[in-house]
Design goal:
Helices cover 52% and strands 10% of the residues. It is built from 24 helices and ten strands. It has a six-stranded parallel sheet, with helices on both faces. A hairpin with a 4-residue loop joins strand 5 and strand 6. Helix 3 packs across helix 12 and helix 16 packs across helix 19. The longest helix has 23 residues. It is globular. It starts with 10 loop residues before the first helix and ends in a 6-residue tail after the last helix. This is Iron-sulfur cluster-binding protein. GO terms for molecular function: 4 iron, 4 sulfur cluster binding; metal ion binding.
Protein backbone atom coordinates (compact mmCIF):
# COMPACT_ATOMS: atom_id res chain seq x y z
CA UNK A 1 0.00 0.00 0.00
CA UNK A 2 1.43 3.36 -1.03
CA UNK A 3 1.31 6.02 1.65
CA UNK A 4 0.53 9.71 1.31
CA UNK A 5 0.99 12.68 3.60
CA UNK A 6 -2.75 13.23 4.01
CA UNK A 7 -3.80 13.34 7.64
CA UNK A 8 -0.37 14.06 9.11
CA UNK A 9 -0.47 15.82 12.50
CA UNK A 10 0.81 19.38 13.09
CA UNK A 11 4.58 19.76 13.25
CA UNK A 12 4.96 19.90 17.08
CA UNK A 13 3.18 16.56 17.48
CA UNK A 14 5.09 14.86 14.68
CA UNK A 15 8.41 16.33 15.82
CA UNK A 16 7.94 15.08 19.36
CA UNK A 17 7.56 11.53 18.08
CA UNK A 18 10.59 11.86 15.79
CA UNK A 19 12.79 13.15 18.60
CA UNK A 20 12.12 9.95 20.53
CA UNK A 21 13.59 7.83 17.71
CA UNK A 22 17.32 7.65 18.47
CA UNK A 23 18.11 5.57 15.37
CA UNK A 24 16.45 8.19 13.16
CA UNK A 25 18.47 10.96 14.77
CA UNK A 26 21.69 9.01 14.29
CA UNK A 27 20.91 8.34 10.61
CA UNK A 28 20.06 11.99 9.95
CA UNK A 29 23.07 13.41 11.77
CA UNK A 30 25.47 11.15 9.89
CA UNK A 31 23.92 11.76 6.46
CA UNK A 32 23.50 15.53 6.70
CA UNK A 33 27.02 15.99 8.07
CA UNK A 34 28.45 14.01 5.14
CA UNK A 35 26.52 16.04 2.56
CA UNK A 36 27.43 19.34 4.24
CA UNK A 37 31.11 18.44 4.15
CA UNK A 38 31.04 17.52 0.45
CA UNK A 39 29.19 20.70 -0.44
CA UNK A 40 31.55 22.91 1.55
CA UNK A 41 34.61 21.51 -0.26
CA UNK A 42 33.31 22.08 -3.80
CA UNK A 43 31.82 25.50 -2.97
CA UNK A 44 35.16 26.64 -1.57
CA UNK A 45 36.70 25.93 -4.99
CA UNK A 46 34.59 28.69 -6.60
CA UNK A 47 36.18 32.09 -6.02
CA UNK A 48 33.09 34.04 -7.10
CA UNK A 49 30.50 31.88 -5.35
CA UNK A 50 28.56 34.85 -3.96
CA UNK A 51 28.45 36.49 -7.40
CA UNK A 52 27.21 33.18 -8.80
CA UNK A 53 24.43 33.10 -6.19
CA UNK A 54 23.40 36.63 -7.16
CA UNK A 55 23.36 35.64 -10.83
CA UNK A 56 21.21 32.58 -10.14
CA UNK A 57 18.73 34.59 -8.10
CA UNK A 58 18.56 37.24 -10.81
CA UNK A 59 17.80 34.64 -13.50
CA UNK A 60 14.94 33.19 -11.49
CA UNK A 61 13.54 36.64 -10.65
CA UNK A 62 13.60 37.70 -14.29
CA UNK A 63 11.82 34.50 -15.26
CA UNK A 64 9.13 35.00 -12.59
CA UNK A 65 8.54 38.64 -13.53
CA UNK A 66 7.79 37.64 -17.12
CA UNK A 67 6.32 34.23 -16.34
CA UNK A 68 3.20 34.67 -18.45
CA UNK A 69 5.20 35.51 -21.58
CA UNK A 70 7.84 32.84 -21.00
CA UNK A 71 5.22 30.11 -20.53
CA UNK A 72 3.48 31.01 -23.77
CA UNK A 73 6.84 30.95 -25.56
CA UNK A 74 7.64 27.58 -23.97
CA UNK A 75 4.35 26.14 -25.20
CA UNK A 76 4.93 27.45 -28.73
CA UNK A 77 8.48 26.07 -28.83
CA UNK A 78 7.44 22.64 -27.54
CA UNK A 79 4.49 22.41 -29.89
CA UNK A 80 6.67 23.34 -32.86
CA UNK A 81 8.92 20.40 -31.99
CA UNK A 82 6.10 17.87 -31.87
CA UNK A 83 5.19 17.82 -28.16
CA UNK A 84 1.66 18.15 -26.84
CA UNK A 85 1.31 20.75 -24.08
CA UNK A 86 -1.37 20.56 -21.39
CA UNK A 87 -2.20 23.18 -18.76
CA UNK A 88 -3.23 21.96 -15.31
CA UNK A 89 -4.67 24.23 -12.64
CA UNK A 90 -4.37 21.65 -9.88
CA UNK A 91 -3.32 18.12 -8.98
CA UNK A 92 -6.52 16.49 -10.23
CA UNK A 93 -6.20 18.00 -13.71
CA UNK A 94 -2.53 17.02 -13.97
CA UNK A 95 -3.16 13.45 -12.82
CA UNK A 96 -6.03 13.07 -15.24
CA UNK A 97 -3.81 13.98 -18.19
CA UNK A 98 -1.29 11.27 -17.27
CA UNK A 99 -4.04 8.70 -16.66
CA UNK A 100 -5.72 9.41 -20.00
CA UNK A 101 -2.44 9.07 -21.91
CA UNK A 102 -1.71 5.76 -20.18
CA UNK A 103 -5.21 4.41 -20.82
CA UNK A 104 -5.13 5.48 -24.46
CA UNK A 105 -2.00 3.40 -24.96
CA UNK A 106 -3.29 0.49 -22.91
CA UNK A 107 -0.34 0.44 -20.49
CA UNK A 108 -0.65 -0.93 -16.97
CA UNK A 109 2.74 0.28 -15.71
CA UNK A 110 5.02 3.28 -16.11
CA UNK A 111 8.60 3.97 -15.06
CA UNK A 112 9.36 7.26 -13.35
CA UNK A 113 12.26 9.66 -13.08
CA UNK A 114 12.57 11.06 -9.53
CA UNK A 115 10.12 13.96 -9.45
CA UNK A 116 9.06 16.16 -6.54
CA UNK A 117 6.13 17.60 -8.46
CA UNK A 118 4.57 14.19 -9.18
CA UNK A 119 4.85 13.41 -5.47
CA UNK A 120 3.25 16.78 -4.74
CA UNK A 121 0.18 15.90 -6.81
CA UNK A 122 -0.02 12.28 -5.62
CA UNK A 123 0.41 10.86 -9.12
CA UNK A 124 1.44 7.36 -8.02
CA UNK A 125 -1.69 7.02 -5.90
CA UNK A 126 -3.90 8.35 -8.72
CA UNK A 127 -2.41 5.86 -11.18
CA UNK A 128 -2.72 3.02 -8.70
CA UNK A 129 -6.42 3.77 -8.29
CA UNK A 130 -6.78 3.18 -12.05
CA UNK A 131 -4.86 -0.09 -12.00
CA UNK A 132 -1.62 1.39 -13.34
CA UNK A 133 1.62 0.67 -11.48
CA UNK A 134 4.14 3.50 -11.23
CA UNK A 135 7.70 2.26 -10.61
CA UNK A 136 10.21 4.64 -9.05
CA UNK A 137 13.65 4.15 -10.62
CA UNK A 138 15.81 6.48 -8.52
CA UNK A 139 17.64 4.32 -5.94
CA UNK A 140 16.46 6.27 -2.90
CA UNK A 141 12.90 6.52 -4.24
CA UNK A 142 12.95 2.78 -4.91
CA UNK A 143 13.92 2.18 -1.26
CA UNK A 144 11.05 4.37 -0.09
CA UNK A 145 8.56 2.71 -2.41
CA UNK A 146 9.57 -0.86 -1.57
CA UNK A 147 9.50 -0.02 2.13
CA UNK A 148 5.93 1.33 1.94
CA UNK A 149 7.48 4.49 3.33
CA UNK A 150 7.39 8.25 2.81
CA UNK A 151 10.23 10.36 1.38
CA UNK A 152 11.95 12.46 4.02
CA UNK A 153 14.44 14.55 2.03
CA UNK A 154 14.32 16.43 -1.27
CA UNK A 155 17.56 14.99 -2.63
CA UNK A 156 17.92 11.75 -0.65
CA UNK A 157 14.37 10.55 0.07
CA UNK A 158 15.61 7.55 2.09
CA UNK A 159 18.04 9.54 4.23
CA UNK A 160 16.28 8.23 7.34
CA UNK A 161 17.29 4.63 6.48
CA UNK A 162 20.65 3.00 7.15
CA UNK A 163 22.32 0.28 5.08
CA UNK A 164 21.07 -2.60 7.21
CA UNK A 165 17.48 -1.40 6.93
CA UNK A 166 17.82 -1.04 3.15
CA UNK A 167 19.19 -4.57 2.83
CA UNK A 168 16.21 -5.95 4.77
CA UNK A 169 13.75 -4.01 2.60
CA UNK A 170 15.34 -5.34 -0.60
CA UNK A 171 15.32 -8.92 0.68
CA UNK A 172 11.71 -8.72 1.80
CA UNK A 173 10.08 -6.76 -1.01
CA UNK A 174 11.94 -6.97 -4.34
CA UNK A 175 10.70 -10.44 -5.20
CA UNK A 176 7.07 -9.39 -4.67
CA UNK A 177 7.16 -6.75 -7.44
CA UNK A 178 9.85 -8.00 -9.83
CA UNK A 179 13.29 -9.51 -9.83
CA UNK A 180 14.20 -10.68 -6.33
CA UNK A 181 17.30 -9.60 -4.46
CA UNK A 182 20.16 -12.11 -4.33
CA UNK A 183 19.94 -14.54 -1.44
CA UNK A 184 23.39 -13.52 -0.22
CA UNK A 185 22.66 -9.78 -0.33
CA UNK A 186 24.85 -7.76 2.05
CA UNK A 187 24.61 -4.17 3.20
CA UNK A 188 27.63 -2.99 1.21
CA UNK A 189 26.59 0.05 -0.87
CA UNK A 190 27.96 -1.38 -4.12
CA UNK A 191 26.13 -4.66 -3.56
CA UNK A 192 22.86 -2.89 -2.77
CA UNK A 193 23.23 -0.71 -5.87
CA UNK A 194 23.86 -3.79 -8.04
CA UNK A 195 20.71 -5.45 -6.71
CA UNK A 196 18.68 -2.33 -7.50
CA UNK A 197 20.22 -2.11 -10.97
CA UNK A 198 19.27 -5.70 -11.82
CA UNK A 199 15.77 -5.23 -10.40
CA UNK A 200 15.14 -2.06 -12.38
CA UNK A 201 16.71 -3.17 -15.65
CA UNK A 202 13.83 -5.45 -16.55
CA UNK A 203 11.36 -2.65 -15.80
CA UNK A 204 13.27 -0.22 -18.06
CA UNK A 205 13.30 -2.71 -20.93
CA UNK A 206 9.63 -3.62 -20.52
CA UNK A 207 7.98 -0.25 -19.94
CA UNK A 208 6.27 1.49 -22.85
CA UNK A 209 5.60 4.74 -21.00
CA UNK A 210 7.63 6.95 -18.67
CA UNK A 211 6.81 9.92 -16.46
CA UNK A 212 9.28 12.63 -15.51
CA UNK A 213 9.47 16.05 -14.00
CA UNK A 214 12.04 18.67 -15.03
CA UNK A 215 14.64 20.68 -13.20
CA UNK A 216 14.37 23.47 -15.76
CA UNK A 217 12.38 24.35 -18.88
CA UNK A 218 14.04 26.65 -21.44
CA UNK A 219 11.40 28.85 -23.04
CA UNK A 220 13.08 29.95 -26.26
CA UNK A 221 14.03 26.43 -27.41
CA UNK A 222 11.30 24.35 -25.76
CA UNK A 223 13.90 22.26 -23.96
CA UNK A 224 13.31 20.36 -20.73
CA UNK A 225 16.27 19.53 -18.51
CA UNK A 226 16.76 16.79 -15.93
CA UNK A 227 19.97 16.40 -13.93
CA UNK A 228 20.68 13.20 -11.99
CA UNK A 229 23.50 10.97 -10.82
CA UNK A 230 22.48 7.38 -11.49
CA UNK A 231 21.52 7.10 -15.16
CA UNK A 232 17.97 5.98 -14.38
CA UNK A 233 16.69 9.28 -15.73
CA UNK A 234 18.46 8.75 -19.03
CA UNK A 235 16.89 5.28 -19.31
CA UNK A 236 13.39 6.61 -18.65
CA UNK A 237 13.78 9.53 -21.03
CA UNK A 238 15.06 7.51 -23.99
CA UNK A 239 13.73 3.92 -23.93
CA UNK A 240 9.89 4.13 -23.67
CA UNK A 241 7.63 4.95 -26.59
CA UNK A 242 5.64 7.57 -24.66
CA UNK A 243 6.94 10.24 -22.28
CA UNK A 244 4.84 12.53 -20.07
CA UNK A 245 6.66 15.31 -18.21
CA UNK A 246 4.88 17.14 -15.39
CA UNK A 247 6.53 20.53 -14.84
CA UNK A 248 5.78 23.25 -12.31
CA UNK A 249 5.34 26.57 -14.08
CA UNK A 250 8.08 28.14 -11.95
CA UNK A 251 10.72 25.90 -13.58
CA UNK A 252 10.87 28.04 -16.72
CA UNK A 253 13.98 30.04 -17.64
CA UNK A 254 13.99 32.36 -20.65
CA UNK A 255 17.07 31.11 -22.52
CA UNK A 256 20.00 28.71 -22.60
CA UNK A 257 22.38 31.47 -21.54
CA UNK A 258 20.40 32.03 -18.35
CA UNK A 259 20.51 28.32 -17.60
CA UNK A 260 24.29 28.54 -17.15
CA UNK A 261 24.56 29.82 -13.53
CA UNK A 262 21.81 27.48 -12.37
CA UNK A 263 23.60 24.42 -13.74
CA UNK A 264 26.74 25.50 -11.88
CA UNK A 265 24.93 26.18 -8.62
CA UNK A 266 22.71 23.10 -8.46
CA UNK A 267 25.19 20.18 -8.40
CA UNK A 268 27.51 21.83 -5.88
CA UNK A 269 24.62 22.73 -3.58
CA UNK A 270 22.85 19.37 -3.83
CA UNK A 271 25.18 16.40 -4.28
CA UNK A 272 28.46 18.18 -3.59
CA UNK A 273 29.64 17.55 -7.17
CA UNK A 274 31.15 19.96 -9.70
CA UNK A 275 28.61 18.77 -12.25
CA UNK A 276 25.96 16.09 -12.41
CA UNK A 277 26.99 12.81 -14.05
CA UNK A 278 23.87 12.92 -16.24
CA UNK A 279 22.32 16.06 -17.70
CA UNK A 280 19.50 15.08 -20.05
CA UNK A 281 17.74 17.53 -22.36
CA UNK A 282 14.87 16.92 -24.75
CA UNK A 283 12.67 19.02 -27.02
CA UNK A 284 9.59 17.38 -28.47
CA UNK A 285 9.85 14.40 -30.78
CA UNK A 286 12.73 13.27 -33.02
CA UNK A 287 11.69 10.56 -35.54
CA UNK A 288 13.43 7.27 -34.81
CA UNK A 289 15.16 8.55 -31.68
CA UNK A 290 13.66 8.37 -28.20
CA UNK A 291 9.96 8.58 -27.31
CA UNK A 292 7.73 9.11 -30.31
CA UNK A 293 4.96 10.74 -28.30
CA UNK A 294 5.79 13.47 -25.80
CA UNK A 295 3.40 15.29 -23.51
CA UNK A 296 4.25 18.20 -21.21
CA UNK A 297 1.91 19.14 -18.37
CA UNK A 298 2.47 22.68 -17.09
CA UNK A 299 1.23 22.72 -13.50
CA UNK A 300 0.03 25.61 -11.35
CA UNK A 301 -1.30 23.96 -8.15
CA UNK A 302 -0.88 27.06 -6.01
CA UNK A 303 2.13 28.58 -7.73
CA UNK A 304 0.24 31.65 -8.93
CA UNK A 305 -0.96 32.07 -5.34
CA UNK A 306 2.67 32.13 -4.21
CA UNK A 307 3.61 34.47 -7.06
CA UNK A 308 1.03 36.99 -5.87
CA UNK A 309 2.69 37.20 -2.44
CA UNK A 310 5.22 40.06 -2.55
CA UNK A 311 7.39 38.55 0.20
CA UNK A 312 6.78 34.86 -0.39
CA UNK A 313 7.26 34.73 -4.16
CA UNK A 314 11.01 34.40 -3.73
CA UNK A 315 10.35 30.78 -2.68
CA UNK A 316 9.58 30.07 -6.35
CA UNK A 317 13.27 30.60 -7.09
CA UNK A 318 13.91 27.23 -5.40
CA UNK A 319 15.90 24.80 -7.55
CA UNK A 320 15.26 21.85 -5.19
CA UNK A 321 18.90 21.43 -4.16
CA UNK A 322 18.10 20.65 -0.48
CA UNK A 323 21.06 22.67 0.84
CA UNK A 324 18.75 24.32 3.38
CA UNK A 325 17.73 20.93 4.80
CA UNK A 326 21.31 19.82 5.29
CA UNK A 327 22.25 22.84 7.44
CA UNK A 328 19.00 23.16 9.40
CA UNK A 329 19.36 22.20 13.09
CA UNK A 330 15.63 21.47 13.30
CA UNK A 331 15.55 19.18 10.25
CA UNK A 332 18.64 17.32 11.43
CA UNK A 333 16.89 16.37 14.66
CA UNK A 334 13.36 15.56 13.51
CA UNK A 335 13.74 14.52 9.85
CA UNK A 336 11.46 15.16 6.92
CA UNK A 337 8.36 13.20 7.90
CA UNK A 338 7.58 15.65 10.72
CA UNK A 339 6.82 18.36 8.14
CA UNK A 340 3.92 16.35 6.75
CA UNK A 341 4.68 17.20 3.14
CA UNK A 342 6.69 16.13 0.15
CA UNK A 343 8.65 19.36 0.65
CA UNK A 344 10.32 19.11 4.08
CA UNK A 345 12.81 21.28 5.91
CA UNK A 346 13.10 25.08 5.75
CA UNK A 347 11.97 25.38 2.13
CA UNK A 348 8.97 23.17 2.84
CA UNK A 349 8.07 25.28 5.86
CA UNK A 350 7.50 28.22 3.52
CA UNK A 351 6.59 26.56 0.24
CA UNK A 352 3.70 24.47 1.57
CA UNK A 353 1.80 27.40 3.16
CA UNK A 354 2.45 29.52 0.08
CA UNK A 355 1.05 26.86 -2.26
CA UNK A 356 -1.87 25.82 -0.07
CA UNK A 357 -2.70 28.98 1.86
CA UNK A 358 -3.21 29.20 5.60
CA UNK A 359 -6.09 27.89 7.70
CA UNK A 360 -5.21 24.20 8.06
CA UNK A 361 -3.63 23.35 11.46
CA UNK A 362 -0.89 21.21 9.93
CA UNK A 363 0.09 23.80 7.32
CA UNK A 364 -0.17 26.65 9.84
CA UNK A 365 2.31 24.90 12.13
CA UNK A 366 5.09 24.84 9.52
CA UNK A 367 6.24 28.50 9.66
CA UNK A 368 7.01 27.87 13.34
CA UNK A 369 9.19 24.83 12.58
CA UNK A 370 12.35 26.92 12.69
CA UNK A 371 14.77 28.62 15.05
CA UNK A 372 15.21 31.51 12.55
CA UNK A 373 18.98 30.97 12.86
CA UNK A 374 19.52 31.95 9.20
CA UNK A 375 21.69 28.97 8.21
CA UNK A 376 19.24 28.14 5.41
CA UNK A 377 19.59 31.60 3.86
CA UNK A 378 23.38 31.38 3.98
CA UNK A 379 23.28 28.01 2.20
CA UNK A 380 20.63 28.78 -0.42
CA UNK A 381 22.25 29.01 -3.88
CA UNK A 382 19.55 31.38 -5.16
CA UNK A 383 19.39 33.63 -2.06
CA UNK A 384 15.89 32.79 -0.82
CA UNK A 385 15.57 34.65 2.49
CA UNK A 386 13.74 31.81 4.20
CA UNK A 387 13.73 33.44 7.70
CA UNK A 388 12.10 36.55 6.26
CA UNK A 389 9.37 34.48 4.62
CA UNK A 390 8.87 32.41 7.77
CA UNK A 391 8.21 35.55 9.83
CA UNK A 392 5.91 36.86 7.10
CA UNK A 393 3.92 33.62 7.08
CA UNK A 394 3.70 33.59 10.88
CA UNK A 395 1.99 36.98 10.68
CA UNK A 396 -0.48 35.58 8.15
CA UNK A 397 -1.26 32.65 10.45
CA UNK A 398 -1.86 35.02 13.35
CA UNK A 399 -4.01 37.32 11.21
CA UNK A 400 -6.06 34.33 10.13
CA UNK A 401 -7.07 33.66 13.74
CA UNK A 402 -8.02 37.23 14.65
CA UNK A 403 -11.68 36.60 13.93
CA UNK A 404 -11.89 33.31 15.85
CA UNK A 405 -14.79 33.20 18.29
CA UNK A 406 -12.55 31.76 20.97
CA UNK A 407 -9.23 33.63 20.87
CA UNK A 408 -6.02 31.68 21.31
CA UNK A 409 -4.08 32.03 24.60
CA UNK A 410 -1.30 33.82 22.73
CA UNK A 411 -3.74 36.45 21.42
CA UNK A 412 -5.21 36.93 24.89
CA UNK A 413 -1.72 37.36 26.36
CA UNK A 414 -0.71 39.93 23.73
CA UNK A 415 -3.91 41.95 24.13
CA UNK A 416 -3.45 41.90 27.90
CA UNK A 417 0.12 43.12 27.53
CA UNK A 418 -0.97 45.93 25.19
CA UNK A 419 -3.68 47.01 27.65
CA UNK A 420 -1.19 46.96 30.55
CA UNK A 421 1.58 48.85 28.76
CA UNK A 422 -0.76 51.55 27.43
CA UNK A 423 -1.13 53.27 30.85
CA UNK A 424 1.51 54.08 33.44
CA UNK A 425 -0.75 53.23 36.37
CA UNK A 426 -1.53 49.82 34.98
CA UNK A 427 2.15 49.14 34.41
CA UNK A 428 3.00 50.13 37.99
CA UNK A 429 0.38 47.75 39.30
CA UNK A 430 1.68 44.99 37.06
CA UNK A 431 5.21 45.55 38.32
CA UNK A 432 4.07 45.06 41.90
CA UNK A 433 2.42 41.81 40.89
CA UNK A 434 5.29 40.56 38.71
CA UNK A 435 6.43 37.93 41.18
CA UNK A 436 2.90 36.59 41.59
CA UNK A 437 2.36 36.67 37.82
CA UNK A 438 5.48 34.66 37.09
CA UNK A 439 4.49 32.07 39.67
CA UNK A 440 1.02 31.72 38.19
CA UNK A 441 2.48 31.64 34.70
CA UNK A 442 4.63 28.68 35.60
CA UNK A 443 1.49 26.75 36.46
CA UNK A 444 -0.88 28.02 33.76
CA UNK A 445 -0.39 29.83 30.46
CA UNK A 446 3.39 29.54 30.24
CA UNK A 447 3.51 25.82 30.95
CA UNK A 448 3.83 24.84 27.27
CA UNK A 449 6.47 27.50 26.70
CA UNK A 450 8.47 26.51 29.78
CA UNK A 451 8.36 22.81 28.95
CA UNK A 452 11.37 23.42 26.71
CA UNK A 453 12.95 26.54 28.30
CA UNK A 454 13.48 28.19 31.66
CA UNK A 455 11.14 30.98 32.73
CA UNK A 456 13.31 33.72 34.28
CA UNK A 457 12.77 34.52 37.95
CA UNK A 458 11.08 37.83 38.69
CA UNK A 459 13.58 40.58 39.68
CA UNK A 460 13.43 41.62 43.36
CA UNK A 461 12.85 45.26 42.37
CA UNK A 462 11.38 47.01 39.33
CA UNK A 463 13.31 49.65 37.41
CA UNK A 464 10.87 52.35 38.55
CA UNK A 465 11.30 51.36 42.22
CA UNK A 466 15.07 51.34 41.84
CA UNK A 467 14.98 54.81 40.26
CA UNK A 468 12.85 56.26 43.03
CA UNK A 469 15.13 54.76 45.65
CA UNK A 470 18.42 55.85 44.06
CA UNK A 471 17.40 58.83 41.91
CA UNK A 472 19.15 57.03 39.06
CA UNK A 473 22.55 56.88 40.74
CA UNK A 474 24.52 53.68 40.29
CA UNK A 475 26.26 54.15 43.68
CA UNK A 476 23.49 55.35 46.04
Amino acid sequence: MTHTFVGMPPFPTAARAALADTQLRHNLAHATATIRGKRARVVDEVENWEELRLAGAAVKDRALRGLDEHLVQLEESLTARGATVHWARDADEANQVVIEVAQRHGVDEVVKVKSMVTQEIGLNEALQAEGIAAWETDLAELIVQLGGDLPSHILVPAIHRNRAEIRDIFRRRMGEVGRAAPADLTDEPAVLAAAARAHLREKFLRARMAVSGANFAVADTGTLVVVESEGNGRMCLTLPEVLVSVVGIEKVVPSWAELDPLLRLLPRSSTGERMNPYTSTWSGVTPGDGPQEVHVVLLDNGRTRALADDVGRQALRCIRCSACLNVCPVYERVGGHAYGSVYPGPIGAILNPLLKGTGDPQTDSLPYASTLCGACFEACPVLIDIPEVLVHLRSKVVDGHREDRVPKPEAVAMKSAAWTFSRGGRLRLAERLTGVGVGVGRRLGASRWTSARDLPKAPPESFRAWWRRTDGRLDP
